[in-house]
Design goal:
The protein is 19% helix and 39% strand. By secondary structure, it is α+β, with helices and mostly antiparallel strands.
Length: 139
């Protein structure tokens, strides 16, 4: 049976799991000062995930619980999940769209801000391909 998508997401983000591109985040170009990287600053929660592959029905209760608990905090050029930091940068900016560079999940994912407080991430990587929506967490 396949591992659960959200559990893999949490594990890969928190542990800096293997990315799906040869270029590492530390070798990618630096984002422009401010720009979309600046808009990413703060705490985010995953509010939607649409897998490009079937999700086992027994995974649904765990996924719901993880959606309520998982928070990603972007601070400067890193994301912190459960106290563990990984590089997290917006590159190739064009309007509200950009590509993410990180050491784990979402590496090379195409992203776009759909509002000031919401970003859509289209990850075509081999680990958990799908579309995630992150929303700025309310304090």
């Amino acid at each position: 049976m396949r591992a659960l998508p959200c559990l893999a997401l949490l594990t890969l983000l928190a542990c800096g799991g293997a990315g799906h591109a040869a270029e590492s985040a530390s070798e990618s170009p630096k984002p422009a000062s401010g720009g979309l990287q600046g808009r990413l600053q703060g705490t985010w929660e995953i509010v939607r995930y649409q897998s490009k592959e079937p999700i086992p029905s027994e995974a649904m209760p765990l996924m719901g619980a993880m959606f309520e608990d998982l928070r990603l905090s972007v601070n400067a050029e890193q994301v912190v999940v459960d106290g563990k930091a990984s590089p997290f940068r917006a590159v190739d900016e064009s309007g509200d769209s950009f590509r993410l560079k990180t050491d784990g999940m979402f590496d090379n994912a195409q992203c776009r801000f759909t509002s000031a407080d919401e970003v859509e991430i289209d990850d075509e990587g081999p680990t958990w391909p799908g579309t995630s929506t992150l929303r700025r967490a309310k304090k």
